[in-house]
Write a structure and sequence with these properties.
2 domains
Length: 265
């Protein structure tokens, strides 16, 4: 199934009926990139009022969420299993460990040496390493180094599934599977569990885009794959820099110390 994207989000308007600051806004903002992929109304509206009958039917069919139980199961899959692949997690873990030891992002050969040190297959890892580094270069070039600095790098691909989990929660309200208080509770849990893995909205957004490209390309990353599956860079740039960009104004709040070695990979 190709990734669902109906239209490009041009603006990120907020609803006056729901908070655009505080815990509720910070929670739903985790789903911002996915909400932009399927525009469903103001970014801070947990009821997804912009979804019409056609969009709701498409979500049910493409996501296989024909019942409340299916919907809850999908949220758990996205927020707990997070579309993870074991080999990819090991390669990123080696990178994170090298970054913690060096105090900076490891260079390509340093990353590969870290994979080798951890007992990984360097030959098998090379396409993955090259793909992640290509995504970083292209997204940084498109979004701007002022927003994605040179010290920012992909430590985990979890951002994609976590963003989808929050968006799916709001879509469930539109589908009649939950009311707003229950959706808020689910979103708060997802947001709380996600935050220790990232240090900023930019960090999270880069992870979201990298996860999306890696998932839909099945790890076969080239310029064409990035152009097709990484087109959300425009939304990322608006979110981080626009006057209406939620990530430009909301803090990335967490109660944990975020050293590289603590991040989930």
């Amino acid at each position: 199934m190709p990734p669902l994207r109906i239209a490009t989000a041009i603006t990120m308007n907020a609803s006056p009926h729901y908070s655009s600051t505080g815990d509720d806004a910070e929670g739903i903002a985790v789903g911002l990139m996915q909400i932009c992929t399927l525009p469903s109304g103001p970014w801070n509206d947990p009821t997804a009022p912009g979804l019409g009958r056609v969009e709701r039917e498409m979500i049910v069919e493409q996501w296989d969420v024909g019942s409340r139980a299916d919907w809850l199961s999908m949220i758990d899959f996205l927020s707990i299993e997070r579309r993870r692949r074991h080999a990819w997690m090991l390669h990123l873990s080696a990178r994170n460990q090298r970054a913690a030891a060096l105090g900076r992002p490891p260079r390509t050969q340093e990353w590969l040496a870290g994979i080798d040190h951890e007992g990984g297959d360097v030959t098998d890892a090379r396409p993955f390493v090259a793909g992640i580094e290509l995504i970083e270069r292209e997204v940084r070039r498109s979004v701007g180094e002022d927003l994605l600095g040179p010290d920012l790098f992909v430590r985990t691909l979890d951002g994609y599934a976590l963003g989808q989990a929050v968006a799916m929660t709001t879509w469930g309200v539109a589908l009649g599977y939950a009311d707003v208080p229950e959706a808020r509770q689910i979103i708060r849990r997802i947001s709380r569990e996600a935050r220790p893995s990232f240090e900023s909205w930019a960090d999270f957004g880069l992870s979201y885009l990298a996860g999306r490209v890696m998932h839909w390309s099945d790890g076969a990353v080239d310029e064409d794959a990035i152009a097709k599956f990484g087109d959300g860079w425009r939304d990322l740039k608006i979110a981080l820099s626009s006057r209406r960009g939620p990530w430009n104004t909301l803090p990335w709040s967490t109660t944990q110390d975020l050293s590289s070695s603590q991040r989930i990979s």
